[in-house]
User: What shape does this take?
Amino acid sequence: MSDTDAENRRPLKSRSLAWVRSLAVTLAGRGFTPNQISLAGIGFALIGFAMLYGAGRWPAGWIFLIPAAVCVQLRLLCNLLDGLVAVECGKKEKGGDLFNEVPDRVEDTLFLVGAGYAAGHLQLGWLCAVLAVFTAYVRAIGASFGQGQDFGGPCAKQQRMFLLTVGLVVAPFLEFSSIGFNVIGWTLGAIAVGTAITAALRLRRIYMKMP
Assistant: This one.
């Protein structure tokens, strides 16, 4: 969802939803810029990280998991709105691509490492974060070769955050019950495998297009 080149934006059906477009117009009308909205996403990610960290450290920390899931979705909403305000509302800014990409990497890291704390498997959280950044790096390599932006999955950003959201919502009902099933840990495992496959498939597509 680059705010400088509409043709290189992540394909999202939610971008055409009436309420989303109306919210973008409202934000633009009140003077909010795409870069400010991008930075707001980091703010939600920081709050989410704090909640996930607390969930892994405090006896009643499970109460923070669903609010953390809400922060994941608010982060994605910011990621959606910055491009809409920039392109559809005609408020592109200097450094738009930079503000579009860098916050995404920071937000992915905060949520995935935070989930590692919540699950009690910090190394797994860091593995997911590294793989997420690597997948974005592979996408950037393809674009630098003139092949365009490859947002293909099966576990791109939207899918990773969907899995994390589901895991955080389900976890309070299982993870801290008598069942004791580590929902967040298994969710991170699925994200790690899916993200590694995504990176491998993107690399393969880059290779296949090369002369």
The chain has one domain: 6-209.
